[in-house]
Amino acid sequence: MTRNLFITFEGPEGSGKSTQINKLCEYLKSKGADVLITREPGGTFAGDRIRSILIDKSSGDLEPETELFLMAAQRNEHFKKVIKPALDKGKVVLCDRYFDSSMAYQGYARKIGMERVKKLHDEFLQDYLPSSTILLSISPETGLNRVKERAQKNPDRIESESQDFHLMVSEAYEKLAKIYPERFIKIIADNKTPDDIFEEILKAINEKYGKLP
Ligand code: TMP
Q: How do the pLDDT tens digits run along the chain, 213 residues long?
């Protein structure tokens, strides 16, 4: 497989990923790149149905492993049917959440263990890691405030988790950035405008890949 640009966006709840992924998509398209923007859980018809089970409160408590296997199942569909074919056609793929979300949420916050999550992926997916992962890092205080704000607006099953759970998610992302320093681009997103954050993302990507696209 020709390894083209496969960039994932990660961060705790409310870190502003969607705004930034859309900005990068528009930017790359304006430069003539063929861009696929997608997200997880989801990205395929079956994946969107699995997403409903995962985030719908009516699913109630799920066993941590059940949650992991559902995340892995939708990823198997998504990677094999959508992401890999797009990369093989030379597209730039931008994905809102991916493997590292499973490492942070299921591996660390649900305490399954990051090693087990990684091993599971190694067993069923080949060459699945993104070329870059943009981590929108927010302080635990900002993160908790955003979780509280969301809690007032009909939060989904995972957003409704405890503050401790969300603090562990933030901690996990900081660990992941250290485990994969060559892949992670960490952007401090606290107290910055979306335009300022985007400028930093663009600068970091240009430094890594040379002028885009
Ligand atoms: P979203 O709100 O960013 O669309 O993500 C949906 C939720 O799914 C979010 O709370 C994070 C969670 N999630 C996991 O727990 N593990 C995963 O592997 C992925 C992709 C998402």
A: 335 799 999 999 989 999 999 999 999 999 999 999 999 999 999 999 999 999 999 999 999 999 999 999 999 999 999 999 999 999 999 999 999 999 999 999 999 999 999 999 999 999 999 999 999 999 878 887 887 787 788 889 999 999 999 999 999 999 999 999 999 999 999 989 999 999 999 999 999 988 665
Q: 97: Cβ below 6 Å to ligand 1? A: yes
97 CA from centroid of ligand 1 (Å): 7
The answer to whether 42 and 77 have CB atoms below 8 angstroms apart is: no
Whether this model's pTM surpasses 0.85: yes
How is 87-106 classified by DSSP, letter by letter? HHTT-EEEEES-HHHIIIII
Task: Return the residue whose CA atom lies nearest to atom 16 of ligand 1.
Answer: 102
Q: Which domains can be identified in the chain, with CATH numbers?
A: 6-207 (3.40.50.300)
> Whole-angstrom Cα distance, residue 176 to residue 108?
10
